[in-house]
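Hey L., structure's done. Input below.
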Amino acid sequence: MDIIEFIKNEVEEKCLGDNNVFGYGIWTHHIVSVVKNAKILANEIGANVEIVEIASLLHDYAGIKDYSKHAEHHIYGAKEAEMILGRLNYPKDKIEKVKDCILSHRGSIQIDKKSKEAICVANADAIAHIENVPSLLYFAYCKKGLEIDEGTEWVSKKIKRSWDKLSNEGKIFIRDKYESVQNTLNLGQK
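Output:
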């Protein structure tokens, strides 16, 4: 059995599920982007691509599966990853690396990145937010029910948190898009 293919199918299935408050767009406009960018970064800095891909697929899994766990989805996500990977007989040392990536990916909580793999996943998560503003706008307006100015401010702050968590290399990778997005969001601000 191909572990990555199994996990990809599992996560996409949860993204299609009724319990997923984010909508299927979290798969198409976030997770797929995180995986793509994390693998690019892993190849650039010499990180383990398999660890990075698995962690990228699972980094938001707990919050997708159960929104009540969203506030601490990094903690619950690491536990979910351990259970899933353990059932698949994935090596324990690699499970620990995947868990570390998931635990430290959040932008709203500063957690040291202990490995190249964790840096790749955290950077790719931030980059995905910056690259996929329409999905954040959708969440702000359609799911959170925010008014125009509230939603714009929420998205702008989310993008800023994503920017702040990027490593210097990540900032170089996405600087132009970040500046363009923030300029666009701030056009309508008073």
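The CA atoms of residues 47 and 117 lie 5 Å apart. The mean pLDDT is 92.

-- N.
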